[in-house]
């Protein structure tokens, strides 16, 4: 069955990445494939936590940092690709284990929150990624300074929140940090393209940036929806 002309036109626009070089398109496919592998690891880690209540809490942060250090220290050569993908997968598992307490919080209020947050995160991630790829080259790279300042501001807000534990300041932190990581999706996507154009083809490491953005948005949406649902009840 053929699609109507208007719909075919819309689909062609959505899949038209003619402004990207063929090598860059292949690199992006590798990046998103690696990110999917990392997300699979995160799913397994989260599932293990939910089924066994196995907790490593802050230890997961140190394990994740250690795995990232190991990944960065392992040369990006053909002979080490399987090893590096294994490290990436392990990083996803520790990230999923670290996400466990937030999942517990959301599920205790309403299990549907997890599905809603994941769908919303996926839609946000796809929308901002496509916006970055369709936009004029380097148009979002100027966000680098703004995002760095935003992270410093969030650090300050979190320190203030340690003393002023009001719901208003907590919500402000959640909403601002969520918007900030959405902007990071724009920035990191275009940065990956520019890095590849300039000879950096480490797609495994590039996938880490996008995975961290996705996980950060998902974690915050879990909390936002949980807080809103709890307020309703």
UniProtKB/TrEMBL annotation:
<keyword id="KW-0472">Membrane</keyword>
<protein>
    <recommendedName>
        <fullName>Transmembrane BAX inhibitor motif-containing protein 6</fullName>
    </recommendedName>
</protein>
<comment type="similarity">
    <text>Belongs to the BI1 family.</text>
</comment>
<feature type="transmembrane region" description="Helical">
    <location>
        <begin position="172"/>
        <end position="189"/>
    </location>
</feature>
<dbReference type="Pfam" id="PF01027">
    <property type="entry name" value="Bax1-I"/>
</dbReference>
<feature type="transmembrane region" description="Helical">
    <location>
        <begin position="31"/>
        <end position="50"/>
    </location>
</feature>
<keyword id="KW-0812">Transmembrane</keyword>
<feature type="transmembrane region" description="Helical">
    <location>
        <begin position="140"/>
        <end position="160"/>
    </location>
</feature>
<feature type="transmembrane region" description="Helical">
    <location>
        <begin position="85"/>
        <end position="107"/>
    </location>
</feature>
<dbReference type="InterPro" id="IPR006214">
    <property type="entry name" value="Bax_inhibitor_1-related"/>
</dbReference>
<keyword id="KW-1133">Transmembrane helix</keyword>
<keyword id="KW-0053">Apoptosis</keyword>
<feature type="transmembrane region" description="Helical">
    <location>
        <begin position="113"/>
        <end position="133"/>
    </location>
</feature>
<feature type="transmembrane region" description="Helical">
    <location>
        <begin position="56"/>
        <end position="73"/>
    </location>
</feature>
<dbReference type="InterPro" id="IPR006213">
    <property type="entry name" value="Bax_inhbtr1_CS"/>
</dbReference>
């Amino acid at each position: 069955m053929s699609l109507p002309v208007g719909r075919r036109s819309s689909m062609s626009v959505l899949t038209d990445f003619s402004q990207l070089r063929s090598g860059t398109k292949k690199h992006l496919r590798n990046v998103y494939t690696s990110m999917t592998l990392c997300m699979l690891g995160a799913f397994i880690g989260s599932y293990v936590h939910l089924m066994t209540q196995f907790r490593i809490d802050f230890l997961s942060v140190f394990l994740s940092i250690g795995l990232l250090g190991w990944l960065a220290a392992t040369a990006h050569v053909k002979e080490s690709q399987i090893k590096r993908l294994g490290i990436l997968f392990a990083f996803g598992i520790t990230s999923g284990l670290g996400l466990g307490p937030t999942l517990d919080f959301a599920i205790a209020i309403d299990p549907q929150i997890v599905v809603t947050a994941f769908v919303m995160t996926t839609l946000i991630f796809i929308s901002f990624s496509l916006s970055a790829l369709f936009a004029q080259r380097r148009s979002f790279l100027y966000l680098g300074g703004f995002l760095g300042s935003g992270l410093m501001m969030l650090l300050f807000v979190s320190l203030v929140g340690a003393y002023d534990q009001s719901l208003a300041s907590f919500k402000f932190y959640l909403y601002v940090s969520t918007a900030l990581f959405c902007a990071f999706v724009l920035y990191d996507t275009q940065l990956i393209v520019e890095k590849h154009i300039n000879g950096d083809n480490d797609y495994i490491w590039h996938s880490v940036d996008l995975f961290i953005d996705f996980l950060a948005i998902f974690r915050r949406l879990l909390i936002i929806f949980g807080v809103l649902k709890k307020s309703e009840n």
